[in-house]
Design goal:
16 helices, two-stranded antiparallel sheet, mainly alpha, 438 residues, globular
């Protein structure tokens, strides 16, 4: 109950900050958020320690606390104009993910190994993330690398399609020194830069849009051939939204959605594992022993947790296959409750609203489209994950950003948010320039 109350108070502050008229009031709310987050960490890791009496949990808690304290302090010192709310929300989602990964990794052959690996990738991502905003601010030529983006992204996806091992029915990435690297997580960022560099010019003609669409279609086709259909959907939706916003032509929007529906029907008849997922989605109990097992266990977990949850270490989320990667939302619902899960969704929503606000207020079209594209990818990934777990849509195998276990996912998401921070600083620079001109 204490954990739920702390999460609810934090979530309320995410939206109440938009009503603050003065900078001092905003700072008080942001400091209050930090206090609530660290209290939630203390309550959660303390609960797990009391349940298991394993000293390694306290070690993980101490390292996580130090890392997040460093993030908050370093961002404030290096970038005074940074969006503190984005930093706080990122840290809170990392906290939720680490709590659940620590809980779920206790029963592994190497206890807490996955939690330690996730923590390493968080630290690595934050190290890169502290450098990215200054690069975005100083590198004025990013809009000129159009075909470099296209070549690098396409080559990375093609390498996966040709040489990666099949895992879970799809080719997702490579294993290097025992670590799985999923290039599509990073190509998502490159893809947004490519599309923005092609569409930001107002002088772009229909021919230019056709060329951009063909290259984007090649990206999606490579992902389909790799059977990474979740990523293919994210790429496709992101491109359609960016094209529509850049051109303000509703024809492109409806044509894109229509072709997407047609492609989904074709994929259903071409790929057996797509048909299996659709059958499992429609009636998971009819195939409970096979394809429907994961869905049914996830629904049982959500129903068992109810509004207030079973409590940390009191449920059985480990019975769900691939729970740390695909079904983290179900594990959160079972042990921390539906109210906690709703608060987490609202935090993700506030993150998306912040990105949209940056996109609306920044003046340069190239950066405006980048903010929109990255925000769309983030929001749609959250929708696909939670929609699949709750049986609202068929499961796509997409991870929940910053919460699910996955080194490539957490690393790329932190870099993505660092780019957003760079765009936020650029927007502040634009406002200062306007004030000087006045």
């Amino acid at each position: 109950y204490v954990i739920i109350i702390l999460m609810a108070a934090y979530t309320f502050s995410c939206f109440s900050i938009f009503t603050r008229n003065y900078e001092d009031e905003e700072k008080r709310v942001l400091i209050r958020q930090d206090v609530l987050m660290f209290l939630l960490q203390f309550a959660a890791f303390g609960t797990m320690y009391l349940a298991t009496k394993d000293i390694r949990i306290l070690f993980l808690y101490a390292v996580l606390t130090v890392i997040l304290l460093a993030v908050i302090l370093l961002y404030n010192l290096i970038y005074p104009n940074v969006s503190r709310l984005v930093v706080n929300n990122m840290c809170m989602l990392i906290t939720v993910g680490m709590i659940m990964i620590t809980r779920l990794s206790a029963d592994n052959p190497s206890p807490y190994g996955t939690a330690v690996r996730q923590l390493v990738f968080v630290a690595l991502g934050i190290t890169f993330g502290l450098v990215v905003p200054v690069l975005i601010r100083k590198m004025k030529f990013l809009d000129q690398w159009t075909y470099i983006y296209a070549a690098v992204g396409g080559a990375a996806l093609l390498a996966v399609a040709l040489f990666a091992q099949i895992s879970g029915g799809a080719k997702l990435g490579f294993e290097i020194a025992g670590i799985n690297i999923q290039p599509s997580e990073f190509v998502k960022i490159i893809f947004v830069f490519f599309v923005a560099s092609r569409l930001y010019k107002k002088s772009a003609q229909f021919k230019d849009h056709v060329i951009t669409t063909v290259i984007a279609a090649v990206y999606v086709l490579i992902l389909v051939l790799s059977r990474d259909l979740g990523s293919a959907v994210v790429f496709f939706i992101t491109y359609v939204i960016m094209l529509y916003v850049a051109t303000k032509n509703p024809f492109y929007l409806f044509a894109g959605l229509g072709s997407g529906c047609g492609a989904a029907v074709i994929a259903y008849f071409l790929f057996g594992h797509v048909r299996q997922r659709v059958v499992a989605w429609k009636n998971p109990f009819s195939v409970y022993q096979n394809e429907g097992y994961q869905i049914v266990q996830g629904l049982f977990a959500i129903g068992t947790g109810g509004w207030f949850g079973m409590g940390l270490c009191q449920g059985s989320p480990e019975m769900i296959p691939f729970v740390k990667q695909d079904y983290m939302f179900a594990a959160i619902c079972e042990e921390l409750g539906g109210l906690f899960a709703i608060c987490m969704i609202l935090i993700c929503m506030s993150m998306f609203l912040l990105v949209v606000n940056i996109s609306l207020r920044i003046k340069k079209r190239f950066y405006k489209l980048i903010a929109l594209g990255l925000g769309t990818e983030y929001a749609f990934q959250v929708f696909l994950t939670i929609g699949g777990v709750t049986k609202f849509i068929p499961m796509t195998g997409i991870t929940l950003p910053l919460v699910s276990y996955g080194g490539s996912s957490v690393l790329s998401t932190i870099i993505m948010l660092a780019i957003i921070q760079g765009l936020y600083i650029l927007r502040e620079d634009e406002d200062e320039e306007v004030e000087k001109q006045r």
